[in-house]
Amino acid sequence: MADELSPRIEDKLYQNRYLVDAGRAHIKVREHDVPTAPLLALLTACPARCYELNDKGQVEITVDGCVECGTCRVIGEPTGDIEWNYPRGGYGVLFKFG
Amino acid sequence: MIDEHFDAIVIGAGMGGNAAALTMAERGLKVLQIERGEYPGSKNVQGAILYSEMLEKIIPNFREDAPLERHLVEQRFWMMDDRSHTGLHYRSEDFNEEKPNRYTIIRAQFDKWFSSKVREAGAVVLCETTVTELVKDTFGRVIGVRVDRAGGFVRADVVVIAEGVSGLLGTRANLRDIPKAANVALAVKEMHFMPRETIESRFNIKGDEGVVIEAAGTITKGMTGMGFIYSNKECVSIGIGCLVSDFQKAGETPYGLLERFKRHPSVAPLIEGSEVKEYAAHLIPEGGYKAIPQLYGDGWVVVGDAAQLNNAIHREGSNLAMTSGRLAGEAIARIKTRRDPMTADNLAVYKELIDKSFIMKDLKKYKDMPSLLHTQSQNFFLTYPQLVNKAMENFVRVDGTPKREKEKLTMRAFVAARTWWGLIWDAFSLARAWR
Questions:
Q1: Which residues of B373-394 are buried (b: 16+ CB within 10 A; e: fewer)?
Q2: Cα–Cα nearest to B72, from B55, B97, B37
Q3: CA atoms within 13 A on the CB side of A95
Q4: pLDDT at position B322 over 60
Q5: How confident is the model at residue A7 (pLDDT cuts 50, 70, 90)?
Q6: Which of A75, A90, A97 sits opposite B128 (nearest CB)?
Q7: Is B171 left (phi over 0), alpha (psi -120 to 50) or beta?
Q8: Which residue, A50, A61, B58, B233, has fewest beta-carbon neighbours within 10 Å?
Q9: How many C-beta atoms lie closer than 10 Å to residue B223's C-beta?
Q10: How far is the alpha carbon of B215 from chain A, nearest alpha carbon, in Å?
């Protein structure tokens, strides 16, 4: 991530409005010891960079900045790597412009 | 209200859902529309370009009060390498007509307006409510939906699924498969604000005139995709999208691509000094004709992005959503008037209307285009843009090299990159897919 063209995604997401549904993540990663190829792909493919590696080398998700595009569902749901739901009504990203 | 029985439930308040809900409500049906966002539009993302003709068929006098941005007078196609672009621009004074053909819009604002028309027509619009399940009876017929509110089962004769591209409810109910990574593109977009005079001088426009730039080339690093820049009144929408399967393989980040595109020497001056107010991402159906799923069944129809209806070549996603929503609404109203049940046999009329419309005719025309562009992305999005820009440089740069020599260099570069057979084959494949 040393590439100068990799912007801080936090700066981008900071502009967005969210209503976070604390404690009710709408996406869950299947428990694993070693991440599968689809899970590793999510580290870079997720446009909000919600997926990160933890200390043990497992893929974790923090959904707070999720823009609900569905990319991870297309990549990770068919293989059972993730479970994807719409956020509860009214929660999640709230686009001002869209 | 949850105890009420509706003629139709519409899931989603995007272009397809609004078109369907409005069409049915205007024809006297008792319609419930359910939207998970805080207000209609708060979950919707598009470039966005609105095509007048398809909206006129639903709201003929929309120009009176719709929140439109700029009417388009110029279209630019750019073929880009890392430091240059070769462009094809079409601009015409004829687009400054009384009833312009295309407008840029901002979806969150537009959808709110569209939804106000749906309410005025008499539909019940329920926001901040997520549909969690399509409810079926023992015969497999869809009889209503379950929502994430207390006691949340609502019955209806028919459910119009306008849930958008990801299509969670439809796949869960086994009505269709989850979209394949090779059949959807992920686009990311930012809204860059600046004074309107700045936009007008940078894009060479006046008043409410607007410009669209669509760009392909090395900006997508060999992946199938494109960049876009749309001028709105006081902001510029700038974004880039590529197939999800390509992102998956290449390991590129979407925001990294966007940042690179923004810093391209041809792009940077257009957005210099602007204030970014939003970052959004969205999937776009790209599979074309061959990726269209079953469109109807007992008690349900599917419209818009959820039905993967998008003409990727002409960038007509919302257009097809509006039209399919309207046709679904008309089909359902027709069945209702006859007092017939909403069976698959009867709802087949929706598919017949779609088949007869421009939707299927256009998608059929380009049915081979997705597989051609998707399997040969290196050639079409990396090699050719570089070659074309090199050829242009050879043509315009005067450096004492004899012109015949320059032409030879250009030709040799094309042949070296693709071989004669490769060039002929590419031209042939492209022509065949276009026809």
A1: bbebbebbbbbbbbbbbbbbeb
A2: B97
A3: 29
A4: yes
A5: low
A6: A90
A7: alpha
A8: B233
A9: 23
A10: 19
What is the residue extent of each domain of chain A?
9-94
Q: Which residues 6+ apart lie within 8 Å of B389 measured at CB?
A: B79, B80, B81, B84, B85, B86, B217
- Adjacent-strand bridge partners of A84: A27
Domains and CATH numbers, chain B: 5-67+106-177+293-365 (3.50.50.60), 182-285 (3.30.9.90), 369-434 (no CATH)
Residue A57 identity: G
- Chain B CB contacts of A7 below 8 Å: 255-256, 259
Angle between helices B317-337 and B358-365 (to 10 degrees): 140
B168 and A9 in contact by Cβ < 8 A? no
Q: List, for residues B162-206, the tens digit of each pLDDT value.
A: 999 999 999 999 999 999 999 999 999 999 999 999 999 999 999
Among A85, A86, A94, pick the best mutation site for testing chain B contact (most B Cβ within 10 A): A86
Taking the Cβ of residue B317 and every Cβ of chain A, the question of whether any pair is shorter than 8 Å is answered with no
Tell me B402's DSSP state. -
Residues in chain A: 98
Angle, to 10 degrees, between the axis of helix B317-337 and the axis of helix B344-356?
140
At A28, list the tokens: 């869950």
What class has domain A9-94? alpha beta
Q: Which residue of B has its CA nearest to A16?
A: B278
